[in-house]
Design brief:
Layout lengths: L13 H8 L2 E6 L4 E3 L7 E7 L1 E8 L2 E10 L5 H9 L6 E4 L3 E7 H10 L1 H27 L2 H10 L5 E3 L2 H8 L3 H13 L3 E4 L2 E4 L1
Antiparallel strand pairs: 1-7, 2-6, 3-7, 4-5, 4-6, 8-10, 9-10
Helix pairs in contact: 3-4, 6-7
Amino acid sequence: MQFSTYPFLKQLEPEALQFLDTHIKPIKIPKGTLLFYQGDICDNILWLTKGEVRLYTQADSIEDITLYTLKAGEQCIVNTASLLSQTDAVASAETLTNIEGYLIDVESVKMLSRMSDVYQSYLFSLYQLRFEELTNLINDIKFKRLDTRIVEWLHKQPQKMIEITHEALAIKLGSSRVVVSRLLKALEQKGTVSLHRGKIELL
């Protein structure tokens, strides 16, 4: 397993590490694959080593909302909570890119958490990190206008010329492509951005 992707693995107890080596399954999954649906009960945890996975929630009356994007070296709390409690997942997961990683089944996860204090500490740290992100997302959606959130997101990027489609930006901000495109056009008319094919330039 790629220890550099998940640094906590270097600290695992020898017995736990040996157990893990015999109970993980390497996987490769193409872009655009639904890993699980909102309402499913997960029976495996994904340890992502390459690519990105989008976690989003849906309701009949609104557009789906992106909760967060899972990246290499991270473990999904929706996936983990559903597996450990054997309850419905509160969101769906879709691969944004081709991904690589490992799967570990429910019984092995429970055994590993009993065997390893290091893994238990890692699980607790995941929940703290994600809850902070979700709290920020809720505050943004409730209290900030979407055009403000768009500009703030653009300012956080390292380059002024940002390669991203309107649809991809909408996914990141939990909105629809139509609404984001309309607001970007308004921002362009104000001289805040310049729109190009597949790119947004922050002026």
